[in-house]
User: What shape does this take?
Amino acid sequence: MKFGYTIVYVKNVPSSLTFYEKAFGFPLRFLHEAGDYGELETGETTLAFASHTLGSSNFPAGYVAVNSTSKPLGIELVFVTQSVQESHKAAISAGAVEVSPPETKPWGQVVSYVRCPEGTLIELCTPVVG
Assistant: This one.
């Protein structure tokens, strides 16, 4: 078995794809013509976005939607970068909200947190050296 996808259900798939392209530099891989589903080029594991309409069809009993008004869900997407400071600034310039600025952890890794416009929590970090 291998980890294949992370899908974030959002209000506006094209807007979310555009944000992630601008903020993190992930190029568009695919956007369905209906605009309800799209993917970004992120490496081996696919980062995808689907509309709440599609989510409702997949989960008829409902689900807890990511949103920017409440506390973040207890899950984060982690993007590894050599320059957390630059990536953090780029994310904020593209519309993210700072949760915590870049900080060097006791084990030497630099880490910061932002929330994307749709509410997803993102960790930006340097590689862990072990």
The two ends are 25 Å apart (CA to CA). The mean pLDDT is 95. The chain has one domain: 5-125. The CA atoms of residues 86 and 102 lie 10 Å apart.
